Amino acid sequence: MTAAVMSHPVLSFTEAQRRHPDEAMIARIRDRYPTEPEIDAVLTRKMRRRRGDPYKAVPIERLVAGVTAMIGEELGYEAQVSNARWLSGGASKLQMVFDLTWRGLDGQAPESVETLVLRMEPAASVTESSRRREFEVLNAVQGVIPAPRPYWVDPEARHLPYPGMVYAFAKGAAKPSVGVEKVSGLGQNYGPELRAKLAPHFVSLLARLHTVDPGECTAMVSFMQAQAGSNASVIRQVNAYRRIWEEDRIEEEPFLEVVYQWLIAHAPSVDRPSIVHGDYRSGNFLFDEASGAITAWLDWEGAVIGDRHQDLTYATLPTFQHLSEDGGSVLASGMMSKDDFYAAYEAASGLPVDPVRIRYFEIFNRYLVCVLTLAASARASLQAGTHQDVLVNFVSQMGHTAIADLRERFLEVTR
Amino acid sequence: MNQSFETQVRIAIRALSDVIAPALAGADKHVVEQLQLTIATLGFVADRIPEATRFARLELSSCLALAERARAIVQPSLPAESEALAAGISVGEEVLALCVRDAADCEVASRHLREQLAALVATTHGSPCERDLTAAILDGSEAMLAQARLWALPFGFELTPEALPAPAW
Known about the structure:
heterodimer, A: two-stranded antiparallel ribbon, 13 helices, B: mainly alpha, 2 domains, 6 helices, 73% helix
């Protein structure tokens, strides 16, 4: 079963409309690029929010009050929030770490102190995503691969200024504490010694994630299932990014329309549905420096139920790679060569790595990066939508390199 | 104007780098990070302000060349779209001919042509001229994307900047 490619009228909106979208415009875009209901809801909310005020700095006291109310309502008893401070890192979400003095989920445990993180979205974001879905997938992967334990979610911002969630503070380092030799490449370099320990874990955890049966994950109610033998789930995702391009772009790029048409026409069927992390790469996990074990996978906001090749090709994007110390090989996500990575993954998961799907998702992920940088990031900073517009604007400038890389790979794949 | 925009931006960068940054040595990491990014962003602006109009004119020229090529491809089968594109080309040529016009005018005209070209790609999908138009877009975008990368060079995302062509603006 393959979703049909249909002919649709071409949409045309002005910059003024994009800055202040009305309901008719929102409806036309939703109709033209159908995607998963929860993603549709998040993107629609983004557009409606755009008509309102720009992002205003949120005092930490406001977050403490909101999270205290949220937790109190969830627990049914009063718990104390203290030692709140900002948590840096990441370009898209606003994070606060704090200590919670409480008596456990049922209120019957002895009083203890636990360090937790509030993760909240700003008015606009590099990646507009659902806190509800992030909360659900974190629940689903508990016991499968290391990830922060989620506690509570405020998906409609009843207590917080914007939707947010609370999860356990995960221990571990994001970068090596000692300097490593300078190598060529933008990706995180862990150095040879640490790399040798991290790389097998990097692969085996991905294999473990992809071999979970999503149909068994009852927690993931906001996710649409992917059907084996159908490309509908892939097309829904392509449409989601095309929709973001329509909603957010600053200027059109005709080449991206060529790529979109190709992605729709060549969307492969999913052979075996998997939980896809969506942002599986170097820099997105914490590790124990002594043992080289990965202690927590972070940033689950892009998770979908779909094709494992999406994660495999994302981890090998040029942005996340660098040359080995001897200059002899390109290390995907700072771990190992692409070929070694795919071979190790096949061995660990028992699942085949299909070259045709790899080529497709290499284009898909590059398209995604272009949309998130040249459209979503650029728009978010243009309309003063975040707590760090200067960083988001900086990220948007990566798009010029990303689109040239997409063009190059597209020519290789299609000729 | 006794002080150029570039000079004024560089003065602001010096103040941020030499005075403000040292005073924030003990501040939260995200505060220091945003200051550093602000300095880098202003550095980009200072570098590019003197060349902004020339770059905008180059972009418009490239868009016009691509639009002319696309129009020739779609004219026999899509006369209405071809006429609309011709109107966009005419506006762009007029803007380009007036060297006194500022960068913003060139940007508006370029963006209009970009929208028209992308719409043509969508409209011609599955039609006999799809292949030729796709080839023209892919071909025409090469130099445009390379110049855009050069333009954004001060942000530091290029691994091998020496491999890029020379600025054409």
